[in-house]
Amino acid sequence: MIPSRQHTQIGSLSLCSPIMPASGTFDPLSSLPPFDLEQLGAVVLKSITLHPQWGNAPPRLAETPSGLVNSIGIPNRGLTHFVTEVLPRYTQRWSHLVVSVAGYSPEEYGLLTKTLSRNPAVIAIELNLSCPNLSYHVIPAHDPVLLKESIHAARETTAKPLWAKLALGVPSLGKMATVAETAGADACTVINTISAMAIDQSTGTPLLGGGTGGLSGPAIKPIALAAVFEVAQHSTLPIIGVGGIMTLQDILDFLYAGASAVQIGTASFYDPLTMAHLIQDLESYLGSVQCTVADLVGRTQKRPQTGPVERT
Q: Buried (b) or exposed (e) across 194-213, using 16+ Cβ within 10 A?
């Protein structure tokens, strides 16, 4: 069979498409999948923690004119329940799973990664180092020492690919990507949601139960795009771009900026078939211009940058 033009490489992983869901935004087990998930580059699952946790108080979602603010808090029943009761339901149907893990110490990242790596259907571990709406949690992606220790602890337990999910809120995202690369990450996921807030006009109080939350959707796309561009300039790691992707043009922008793959989040809330449509749109586009995804990655990086105009 002739390989699809959409094939992309994330380190040692060859994916049939650069398109996949963002962690926590698409659960095919919650209902019948609206399309064949084998079309996706990977099925990315929501973040799992070592111990059970309830998550943040409701309300957990607030719609904005250009996206969503969420304060979910990673509710889940913990690693043991996930491995024994939940993961088998995924592996019975799909063999290209990426599991996201959220630890509260480097040791927890190591234990989570070690346990989940034992399943052959798990092709990579995404380290959620950047969740912005856990008020009691220091964000590893904001601390270069903690970031390095967390990735290193995971790296020591597995040979499987590790994707480090980074966050804004640091002086140099590019330098944090360099830290992740040195610590043993195989790719960077850029970015997570951006700290944000919504107000209940009738009471003057925060609309979300957690007070503040994370903004996603079209509003953050230009910010995420700049972040991908910066990381690509500082690190040789493959990049999975995420943030406000809704259309084919959005995907092309992220590929041009330096991403080798993308994750779709908020768009799937508006239309569960978004990823299927984007896969078709991308295949049609690549055919029309006679190129592959690899031909597009980093195109903007390779162009001469326009400097300041000298006045005489």
A: bbbebeeeeeeebbbebebb
CA atoms in the 13 A half-sphere facing the CB of 50: 12
Q: What is the CA radius of gyration of the chain?
A: 19
List, in order, residues 6 or more apart from 210 with CB less than 8 Å away: 56, 57, 60, 71, 73, 133, 135
pLDDT in tens, 123-180: 999 999 987 545 446 789 999 999 999 999 999 999 999 999 999 999 999 999 999 9
Q: Among all residues, which ones are annotated catalytic?
A: 131
Per-domain boundaries in the chain: 8-56+74-195+217-302
Alpha helices by DSSP H, the chain: 78-81, 87-91, 106-116, 144-155, 173-183, 221-234, 248-257, 266-270, 274-289, 293-296, 299-302
What pLDDT does residue 206 have? 93
Place of tokens 């590929």: 255
The yes-or-no verdict on residue 307 having pLDDT over 70 is no
Report the sign of the C-alpha dihedral through residues 28, 47, 44, 131, in that order. Answer: positive
- Return the CATH fold of 8-56+74-195+217-302: TIM Barrel (3.20.20)
Q: Rounded CA gap, 173 and 179, in Å?
A: 10
